[in-house]
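Worked example 3 (structure in, sequence out).
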């Protein structure tokens, strides 16, 4: 597998994730959009799980664990967007996860990360945090706490998913089952909540379908890529999505501070460029 091709797929996944996040933030009912994302995942992956071998016992552990973590993550995302701007919350959540994954990869997993690779990861983290704090007029404590919680959840399920896809005899076995099940907790919650799918005039069907497709591409390709590139590198490279998210938050969500975050986005781009030359 060409690493250049894998790199391009990660960048594509990053753009998909930024688009998905923007739809959730823009929607009048993020919970319903999350639920519709889950429905799309079920429709697509229910038949696909019959085309791959069944997961082994230890892989089932990863599947159940990541399903629970993704449920908490999606709820955390919705909550954070209720308290803070996309251009403030998104970089903290993504930058925090990159930093946590990098530390765990170096100190616990003992991944093969070069000195330049570490520099690239740190530049990306620095740029992400700058985007949130450089032009903040007032520190949003609640949004910050929720974003850090989201970062911890992202880091945990990313590492688990990376380990699982590498340990699977067939990587698609884990990917298909993970994408089939990971949205079910949020779907159940959205069906039970009076502010979810039952609030019919608060969300758009097309938005939900598009969000579902973008969510699948945005994370499915990332997990697949972890078979070929270090988990910490993949998680860092995909955060180029913040550059697009910053543009979207300015042009679509009309968040005024977004246009002041161009320089940090350039720093992120430099960090991603460094990582690109580390994986070749």
């Amino acid at each position: 597998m060409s690493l250049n091709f894998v790199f391009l797929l990660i960048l594509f996944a990053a753009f998909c994730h930024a688009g998905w996040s923007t739809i959730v933030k823009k929607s009048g009912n993020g919970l319903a959009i999350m639920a519709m994302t889950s429905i799309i995942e079920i429709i697509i992956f229910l038949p696909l799980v019959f085309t791959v071998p069944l997961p082994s016992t230890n892989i089932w552990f990863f599947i159940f664990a990541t399903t629970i973590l993704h449920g908490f993550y999606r709820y955390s995302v919705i909550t954070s967007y209720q308290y803070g701007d996309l251009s403030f919350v998104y970089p903290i959540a993504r930058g925090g996860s990159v930093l946590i994954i990098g530390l765990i990869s170096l100190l616990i997993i003992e991944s093969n990360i070069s000195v330049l690779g570490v520099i690239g990861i740190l530049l990306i983290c620095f740029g992400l945090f700058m985007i949130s704090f450089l032009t903040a007029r007032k520190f949003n404590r609640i949004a910050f706490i929720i974003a850090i919680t989201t970062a911890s959840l992202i880091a945990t399920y990313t590492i688990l998913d990376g380990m699982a896809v590498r340990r699977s005899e067939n990587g698609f076995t884990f990917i298909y089952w993970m994408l089939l099940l990971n949205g079910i907790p949020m779907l159940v919650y959205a069906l039970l909540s009076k502010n979810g799918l039952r609030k019919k005039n608060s969300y758009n069907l097309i938005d939900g379908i598009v969000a579902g497709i973008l969510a699948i591409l945005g994370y499915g390709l990332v997990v697949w890529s972890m078979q070929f590139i270090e988990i910490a590198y993949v998680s860092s490279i995909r955060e180029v999505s913040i550059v697009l998210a910053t543009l979207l938050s300015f042009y679509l969500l009309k968040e005024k501070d977004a246009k002041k975050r161009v320089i940090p986005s350039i720093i992120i781009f430099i960090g991603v460029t460094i990582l690109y030359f580390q994986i070749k």
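Notes: The chain has a mean pLDDT of 83. The radius of gyration is 18 Å.
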